[in-house]
Specification:
Growth Hormone, Chain: A; mainly alpha
Length: 478
């Protein structure tokens, strides 16, 4: 590995750690932040929501900007915005300052995430790309583990503000690494930024994400009591998406070129990615309800389950990349999705009779499935489009990931809440939550099965696209 590739891998790995430190600890620290700033939990939760809204809204645009202007430049600006806004967030005197700075930090994170994999895909050859993407994925998982541990310890023993203060030294290292990037990529000579398309896409994605949130309307925090809000937001998202489509088909350099959505390899892989993140986050969201309310155990048992799953992912991600580079086995993502689907169904069928070690064994397998899916599937996505659209590919990948997270939480919470509401008067709290977990997990398992079908379709589409590349030339090559 030459110095350019090594610097790029270090820069992207550090950036992935940054992103996860900004994302994962916040839910753990939220009660402490609410108490310190003297607001309710619902208001304090906007420190998470504002970050996620700007992140989801701008990921695709950020990747496309990298295609047009240069991935190194956009990536560098992302690290600067992330570091400055994150550090200033530690000095917030009220919740509104924190919410604003977190929204700005979400913008920086979108610029980073929308271009990091594009940088690796441009610098690393197809036969070594899987290992690079696997190492980057491992760094993200390590960042998630560090974030959860740091968030818990700082909130309990020091101050939540120190999480943001620690973003400064990490950010300085990240900026220095980004300055050392040397990506051999020629952006468009006369880029024409699709401002109208970017605004419409952002508003559409924000409206869709808000439609999935059950706590932004009056009354009880349920989808039933706020159905008018959800329907209105979903309708607004559809109208804005139609307007976005009309703008895109007329723009000379659109954010989204719809011809790429006719490529089965790319579309199926992105769809499988969204479903994998949807189902895995659903399981992460549901586990605390099972452990603490369904089984009557302490929160530390939930932490043990989540840690074992993340550790399995950390180990599997780089190994699966190496294996994919060496063998080119296209069936790895579909086999991994089969493991995830099977694990979720096993949890749903047996949660009431499993011992704690049984939960750990199933979650260990699911963590391995996560690692063996993400690296090969991400590698396929980043090689499915021409080099001039690597940012678009990365943006679609990350957007499907974040939307999958939102759908996973909203769908699983809806199923859990419905089952618990119906069952609670008849069965009592523990039995009702256990049944709710089982039903929601079974639903997630069957959705993951659909993801497996998409992954199989993707593996079958790959040879056809490779043959097309030989005939059509570099426009369709990876």
């Amino acid at each position: 590995m030459n110095s350019e590739k090594r610097i790029a891998l270090i820069a992207v790995a550090i950036a992935n750690v940054q992103v996860m430190i900004a994302l994962t600890p916040m839910s753990v620290m939220l009660p402490t932040i609410a108490t310190d700033l003297d607001v309710g939990l619902t208001t304090a939760s906007w420190a998470i929501t504002s970050f996620l809204l700007t992140l989801v809204a701008l990921l695709l645009t950020a990747g496309r900007l990298g295609d047009l202007i240069g991935h190194q430049k956009i990536f560098l600006w992302g690290t600067i915005i992330y570091t400055v806004s994150g550090t200033l967030a530690g000095f917030s005197q009220d919740i509104f300052q924190l919410i604003l700075l977190r929204a700005i930090q979400g913008i920086g994170t979108a610029l980073i995430s929308g271009n990091s994999l594009a940088i690796l895909a441009l610098l690393f050859k197809p036969e070594e790309r899987g290992r690079a993407i696997g190492i980057a994925g491992m760094a993200a998982s390590i960042g998630a583990l560090i974030g959860v541990m740091m968030g818990s310890l700082l909130a309990q023993y020091v101050s939540w503000r120190w999480l943001f203060f620690l973003m400064l030294p990490i950010g300085v290292v990240s900026i220095k690494s980004a300055l050392g990037l040397r990506v051999n990529y020629q952006p468009a000579e006369k880029p024409k930024l699709d401002v109208a398309g970017a605004l419409l896409l952002a508003m559409s994605l924000i409206a869709f994400t808000l439609a999935l949130s059950s706590h932004l309307h009056g009354g009880e925090p349920t989808y039933t009591s706020g159905w008018t809000y959800h329907v209105a937001m979903l309708g607004a998202a559809i109208i804005l998406a139609v307007a976005f489509f009309r703008v895109e088909v007329r723009h000379p350099q659109p954010i989204m070129e719809f011809r790429h959505l006719r490529q089965p390899l790319f579309v199926m892989s992105v769809g499988a990615n969204g479903i994998m993140h949807m189902t895995m986050l659903a399981s992460t969201f549901l586990l605390p309800f099972l452990v603490e309310r369904g089984l009557g155990l302490l929160p530390v048992y939930t932490a043990g389950m989540l840690i074992i799953m993340q550790l399995a992912n950390v180990g599997a991600a780089p190994f699966s990349g190496w294996l994919f580079d060496r063998t080119g086995w296209r069936w790895l993502p579909s086999a991994a999705m089969a493991v995830i689907s099977g694990g979720l169904i096993l949890l749903g069928l047996n949660a009431g009779v499993l011992e704690y070690w049984g939960f750990l064994a199933i979650l260990l397998l699911m963590g391995l499935g996560l690692g063996f899916f993400m690296t090969p599937n991400n590698t396929v996505i980043m090689g499915a489009l021409p080099a001039t659209y690597r940012g678009f590919a990365a943006g679609m990948l990350e957007t499907s990931r974040q939307l999958g997270h939102s759908l996973g939480v909203s769908a699983s919470s809806a199923v859990l809440g419905l089952v618990v509401t119906i069952s609670l008067p008849k069965m009592g709290e523990r039995a009702a939550y256990l049944l709710g977990f089982q039903q929601a997990t079974l639903a997630a398992g069957f959705v993951a099965f659909v993801g497996m079908i998409l992954a199989i379709a993707s593996s079958r589409a790959a040879p056809a696209q490779e043959e097309l590349a030989l005939v059509a030339g570099p426009e369709f090559s990876s």
